[in-house]
Amino acid sequence: MMLDALSAPLLIAQTAELDAASRVTYRLEQTFRYTYDAPVTDLRQRLVVLPPAVHGDVHRRLASLTVTGLEDGAVRRTDRRDAFGNTVTRVRADRVADHVEFRLAAVLERVVPTAAHEAHAAVPRTALRDPRLLTPTALTTPDAAVVELAESLRRPENPLETAERVCSAVHAAFTYRFGTTTTRTTAAQALAGGVGVCQDYAHVMIAVMRHLGIPTRYVSGHLIGQGGTHAWVDVVVPGLVDGQPGAVAVAFDPCNDKRAGAGHLTIAVGRDYTDVAPVSGSYSGEGVRGALASTRDLGVVSIQP
Fold it and tell me: What percentage of the chain exceeds 90 in pLDDT?
């Protein structure tokens, strides 16, 4: 059945329909094609695109990442877990003639649990005090304006109420505009400019939450109805895990001013974008120019009310 999902037609589904469903099956297909105007050597590529086996109520049923364009036996590949549990694929090749392509195919299934809290991803209880989730990074270090925003939102309430307030405030502080920021834009720079993309919204919310002492992590994933990858945040709070006191990650999407729902699919989590960049790498070739073209096809193949 899951193999059939790779070829089944996609359904037209509204967000409300997905949120109300008891079971949803998704298909994700993604390609990254690098082309070069002359042969290159010592290709080193890092990819963080394979979905986790389980994240909250979402289960990976099938997943494959294939590499084409290289000579047989010329590819050295490893797939390993990083410190956050993400699957990191590293590919090395001594020579690339003119192109290399990475193709992802995955089937994911969301099974709504009987207890609402089980929809959130369980995390180790130590995450509540994890310095990686509480300490600013180069991309999330607050300046005076970020601190001022954070202090204006500080209330003696539970972390989720604070997160709701911060999510809305960050959303209101921005105008979504593609092409005005880069992957190196900091939270302080983005807030000062008032324009940006989902990554910038996420970085500002993380900067504010960490200043308030609430552990928060960056999420890289996909959103139904959006063409490329998407970013949001996980707020780590105390919660029940298998009926016992533990910690859970509750997802907020400041770009859309809401909690993440059934249209959001997590791929990886980290301190900021740098930890979970979908693709990055290097090659050698004096004067050689390279270009990246990517595609993504994400949709629903079945829904059970």
Answer: 84
pTM confidence score: 0.94
pLDDT in tens, 139-154: 999 999 999 999 999 9
User: Could you tell me where the DSSP H helices lie in the chain?
Assistant: 15-20, 131-134, 144-153, 159-172, 187-193, 198-211, 273-276
- What's the DSSP call for residue 9? P
pLDDT in tens, 212-239: 999 999 999 999 988 889 999 999 999 9
CATH class label, 119-276: alpha beta
Asked if 135 and 219 touch (Cβ cutoff 8 Å), the reply is no
Distance CA 305, CA 303 (A): 6
Helical axes 159-172 vs 144-153, angle rounded to 10°: 130
The answer to whether residues 117 and 248 touch, using CB atoms and an 8 Å cutoff, is yes
CB contact set of 12 (below 8 Å; sequence gap of 6+): none
Query: Which of 3.40.50.10420, 1.10.10.10, 2.60.120.1440, 2.60.40.2250 is the CATH number of 4-111+278-304?
Result: 2.60.40.2250
